[in-house]
Amino acid sequence: MTLIVGVRYLIVSGTFAWATRLRHPGLYARLTPQIRSEIAWSLASAAIYGIPAGVVAWGWDSRGWTLIYRDLGAYPLWYFPVSILLYLAAHDSWFYWTHRLMHRPWFFSRAHAVHHASRPPTAWAAMSFHPWEALTGAIVIPALVFVIPIHVAALAVVLSVMTLMGVTNHMGWELFPRIIVRGVLGNWLITATHHQRHHDEYRGNYGLYFRVWDKICGTDRGLGTFADGDSRSGGTIKT
C-alpha cells in the first residue's frame, strides 16, 4: 500500500508538474533543490499514509472489519453521492482544525514548517509534510471507513478528489477557470487561488476542500494572487 501511495503521488504530481512546464514555462525555474526536498518528504509521507491504508485494506478484504461495501444494492443509490460528500466534509473538518493547530508556534516549528518551506509551493508539495503531520492526515480516511458506510467506488472517488485537490492547490497557478473561482462555486470551494493566500500570509484559509469552516470561524482571507504574470489563470494575477 505504501508503494501504491508513493507511485500515485509521483504520477499525479509529476503530471501536473509537466503541465506547469507547458502552461507556465519557467515557473519552477531555480526551484530544483526545493523540489527535491518536497519529493523526499512526500515519499516519507507516502510510507506513513500506506500503513493505516494497508491495515484497512486487509481488514476489509480478509476480516470484514470496515463499513466498505461492494454491492450497490446494499444502500439506496442516492446514498452513493451522499457518502462521498460526508467523507469530504468530515475530512475537510478534520483538516481545518488540525491545520489550525499546526499553525500554533510549538507545532509549526516542530512539524508544519516543513510544508511551508516550499516557497512558492509546487505541484510536488502536496504531501511534503513532517512525519508527525503526515500521521494526522494518514489516519482520518481509514478511521472514517469504520464509522460511515461507503461503496468501494465512492471511496475511490474520495481518494481521487483528495489527491487532485492536494496537488492542484499547490501548483502556483490556477487550473480552474475564472467563472468558477470568482463565481458562486468559488465562494465555497477551495482552489489554488484561495490556498495561495495561505502560503503567502501563513494565516487564514485553513480548509482543504470547502471554505465553510473558514467562513464560520472568521479565518477566510479571500483569494490570493500569483506572481507569474499570466492573467489567463483563474485567480487575480499580479505582475
Keywords:
mainly alpha; 239 residues; two-stranded parallel ribbon; disordered C terminus; 10 helices; 3% strand
Secondary structure topology:
Blueprint: H1 2-23, H2 32-63, E1 68-69, H3 79-102, H4 105-116, H5 131-138, H6 140-144, E2 150-151, H7 152-168, H8 178-181, H9 192-201, H10 212-217, E3 225-226, E4 236-237
Parallel strand pairs: 1-2, 3-4
Helix pairs in contact: 1-2, 1-7, 2-5, 3-7
How would you explain this protein's 3D organization?
- The protein has 239 residues and is mainly α.
- It is built from ten helices and four strands, in the order ααβααααβααααββ.
- The protein has helices at 2-23, 32-63, 79-102, 105-116, 131-138, 140-144, 152-168, 178-181, 192-201, 212-217; strands at residues 68-69, 150-151, 225-226, 236-237.
- The protein has a two-stranded parallel ribbon with strand order 1-2. Strands 3-4 form a two-stranded parallel sheet.
- The protein is globular, with a radius of gyration of 18 Å.
In short:
The protein is mainly alpha-helical. The chain has helices at residues 2-23, 32-63, 79-102, 105-116, 131-138, 140-144, 152-168, 178-181, 192-201, 212-217, and strands at 68-69, 150-151, 225-226, 236-237.
Bulk shape: globular
Rg on CA atoms, Å: 18 Å
How much strand?
Answer: under 5%
The spatial strand order of the largest sheet comes to 1-2
User: What percentage of residues falls in helices of 4 or more residues?
Assistant: 55-70%
Mean pLDDT: 92
**Major β-sheet annotation:** 2 strands, parallel
Query: Which stretches are poorly predicted, pLDDT < 50 over at least 5 residues?
Result: 234-239
The total count of helices amounts to: 10
Total strand segments: 4
Structural class of the helix and strand makeup?
mainly alpha
The termini sit apart by 43 Å
Order of helices and strands: HHEHHHHEHHHHEE
